[in-house]
Design goal:
Distance between the termini: 71 Å
Structural class: alpha/beta
Low-confidence stretches: 1-9
Largest sheet: 7 strands, mixed
Shape: elongated
Number of strands: 15
Mean pLDDT: 92
Strand content: 5-15%
Radius of gyration: 24 Å
């Protein structure tokens, strides 16, 4: 069992395999809570950058936590797994589990590779923890792999899923809604309870269960949240047909404590690294168990239709065709305060608009480089927001970055060729946009027509 009195020893007590989003945040925050942590990764260039204080992802506050704990000697980065494991009492697997294209299931090759590396390099008792999001039964397979590779090793296996929101990950780790651990070993449970004592001593809840239940909790939570997103988007579509106000409906539903307000904001659909792959994996888990996750299947279907609906909104705002029109696209990441463009509806919309002959000028505070990797030169990447909107035929607000929200409406109007704004995030009120003289298209609330009904001007 871990003992905080050992925190001053020169060797790390916690090893984290993988320095991606989950591994880096988890390792840095565990160091912040007082533990000595070694983060190990096979990519030497990434480790060298981390040693130099260069963070490979954008996550508010993470760079300060990494630098502070590295300078204090609590956090080290290495490519040498033997070094990382030398005196580690807990070994956390935090590698990627991307969607497997063949069947939609989570690709566990990196988890299993990490398990083999642990077995070949660990020579003392430790708890091997899966923090990566993995299907039910993965912990048992990790145990079988390690036992096969190193039959004499004394170890336990546990599950400890992460619940980190991109853009809020440091806060989510340091002030968690709950901490979930799953294990069948009393010794492993004691070690994990000690690991998280700096948090439970502050009153944060720790839920202890078996491994399979722990693995399913993460999928159940994410698929339920995705369900709320798709549900409110379907309600928004109905509102557009029958004349309701999705904002009022969302407030009316969310005020019910049994439902809650979170994830009831209509928009372009969910994206990022978690919901798309976790909903697909949940469907696969159900299929494999001969217990179909039919609600989750419907959630995926609804979400897949969102980019097409957003494109249709832009085409409608452009008068029926976007061919030859210059469209300012504000936002490329799937949400603000991240540089993640994976499964971002904004990227899909940009691609579809260019295929229909539009000239797309885009700006995003953090996601431009990653978007370029996906879209290449299909769109124009503008250095500033002003450059994107200047002279554009219309503007699409795809991601609610604060600078887009705070930008004066008079400045939008002055820069645009036509005062037309398509808002995927319902940032502005209909009344505000009407007073500002905009033609305004939002989600589930209808639209506002500009005072002077003139034909849409075309770019020169």
């Amino acid at each position: 069992m871990l003992d905080m009195s050992n925190a001053a020893r020169s060797a790390p007590q916690v090893a984290v395999i993988g320095t991606g989003y989950v591994g880096l945040v988890s390792g840095a925050c565990l160091a912040e809570s007082g533990w000595r942590v070694a983060c190990v990764d096979q990519v030497e260039a990434k480790i060298e950058k981390l040693k130099a204080g260069i963070i490979p992802i954008y996550e508010p506050g993470l760079d300060e936590v990494v630098v502070r704990n590295a300078e204090a000697g609590r956090l080290i980065f290495t490519t040498d797994i033997a070094e990382a494991l030398r005196e580690a009492a807990i070994v956390i697997i935090a590698v990627g589990t991307p969607t497997r294209k063949l069947d939609g299931n989570a690709d566990l090759q990196y988890v299993y590779a990490a398990s083999r590396d642990i077995a070949r390099n660990l020579d003392h008792y430790a708890v091997v923890v899966t923090k990566s999001t993995v299907p039910a039964g993965t912990g048992n397979e990790v145990r079988r792999i390690i036992e096969r590779e190193n039959p004499n090793l004394d170890f336990d296996v546990a599950s400890n899923p992460e619940f980190l929101r991109e853009g809020n990950a440091v806060s989510d780790f340091m002030k968690p809604d709950r901490i979930v651990i799953g294990t069948d070993s009393a010794r492993a449970r004691e070690s994990l309870e000690a690991l998280y004592r700096p948090f439970t001593d502050q009153g944060f809840e720790l839920i202890s269960t078996d491994i399979i239940s722990s693995e399913l909790i993460k999928y159940a939570a994410n698929t339920f949240l995705a369900t709320k997103v798709s549900f409110i988007n379907e309600m928004a579509d109905i509102c557009e047909k029958v004349g309701g106000d999705i904002g009022a409906i969302s407030r009316g539903m969310g005020s019910d404590k049994r439902i809650g307000r979170e994830f009831l904001k209509p928009g372009p659909g969910y994206g990022g690294s978690c919901f798309p792959k976790d909903t697909l994996a949940m469907v696969h888990i159900g299929e494999k168990a001969l217990s179909p996750a039919t609600i989750v299947e419907a959630v995926i279907t609804v979400n897949r239709s969102r980019p097409h609906r957003m494109v249709a909104k832009v085409i409608q705002a452009a008068g029926g065709s976007v061919e030859g029109r210059t469209i300012a696209l504000l936002g490329l990441t799937f949400k603000p305060n991240t540089d993640d463009v994976r499964d971002s509806v904004a990227v899909l919309v940009a691609e579809q608009l260019t295929q229909r002959g539009a000239i797309v000028r885009a700006f995003d505070p953090k996601g431009m480089d990653h978007a370029r990797e996906m879209l290449g030169d299909a769109i124009e990447y503008c250095p500033t927001m002003q450059d994107a909107i200047e002279g554009a035929d219309l503007c699409v607000l795809a991601t609610e970055w604060e600078e887009f929200v705070r930008f004066p409406l008079d400045s939008y109007r002055a820069a645009l060729r036509n005062p037309i704004l398509v808002d995927f995030r319902n940032v502005f009120s209909l009344e505000t946009m009407a007073e500002a003289g905009f033609e305004y298209h939002s989600i589930g609330r209808g639209s506002v027509q500009a005072p002077a009904a003139e034909p849409l001007a075309r770019s020169a």
